[in-house]
Amino acid sequence: MKVVVARPERVEDHGSWIFAERVMFTKRELRTVDRDAAGDPRHEEWLRARGAVDPDVTTIKLVLRGDRGKRVRITGMRALSKCMAPLTGTYMYAPAAGANDVIGVGLNLDRPNPRAQIIEVDNNGLADHPMRMIGDYFATKTVSLKQDEEVVFEVWAQTTKHYCEFRLEVTVVDGDKEVRQVIDDHGQPFRVSADLFSEEEQTALAIPHAYDVVYFGGVATKSSNWVRVKPS
Questions:
Q1: pLDDT tier, 1 (very low <50, low <70, confident <90, very high otherwise)
Q2: Which of 1, 18, 33, 139 shows a CA-CA span of 20 to 30 A to 69?
Q3: 178 and 88 in contact (C-beta within 8 Å)?
Q4: pLDDT at 34 over 70
Q5: With 60 as the cut, is the pLDDT of residue 15 above it?
């Protein structure tokens, strides 16, 4: 089995980010982010390159391809995770417009090395926030791949308590052999941090006091650009 694509990919309508350190953007840098924000992947790449981490949930596009002369079966997936206290350096907050439209499997990183789960959705295919997960996805499903056939997963990895670094481990049955293949983000772990911006602070658009530096953007500010905000 060949890994064709394994990368974090924004699928939610928000532009929020968390950094481990205090990040003081120049006005020119903020203009760069604003210019690239409207659906341009350079916006995401630029921020990730500077240490930006997804808040609460990171979504990984995972494309796998059969590369054997016979079929192989994918029978399991889990995160190999290392978690610690959430990040509190810098927060960039641009709120989502609505609920999460979910297709894929979920990982609850508040548990150690979690297995891929089924994500509970409503009749419209929307998930709550935080997402609810309802059982091992591969307990009732297997995915088989013949030569050059591809399968695409959206892997939704969520934490409400920690900062987590993790890799994906996929279990594959190849003939009479069971193989475990570890997948990462181009040699680095995938990353996500719990969001410490409380519901009360979000409702009032109050400045979250858990972070050293805070920027507001989108509907959280009257300006069209990112604005650094300070506690009153």
A1: confident
A2: 139
A3: no
A4: no
A5: yes
Counting Cα atoms < 13 Å in the Cβ hemisphere of 135 gives 5
Q: Which residues of 88-124 are buried (b: 16+ CB within 10 A; e: fewer)?
A: bbbbbbbbeeebbebebbbbbbbeeebbbbbbebeee
CA distances from 100 to 37, 73, 87, 181, 195 (A): 20, 30, 23, 29, 16
- Residues 44-90 have pLDDT tens digits of 888 898 999 999 999 999 999 998 778 899 999 999 999 999 999 99
Say which residue the tokens 């810098």 belong to: 90
5's tokens: 């694509």
Confidence (pTM): 0.89
Cα 149 to Cα 6, 61, 69, 71, 177: the distances in Å are 17, 17, 11, 9, 20
Between CA 215 and CA 222 the distance in angstroms is 13
How many residues can be counted in the chain? 232
- β partners of residue 190: 166
CA 141 to chain CA centroid, Å, is: 23
Q: State residue 116 phi and psi, 5-degree precision.
A: -65, 135
pLDDT of residue 121: 84
Dihedral over alpha carbons 29, 190, 195, 89 (to 10 degrees): -50
Amino acid at 35: R
- Is 54 exposed, middle or buried (CB count within 10 Å of its CB: 0-12, 13-18, 19+)? buried
Amino acid of residue 126: L
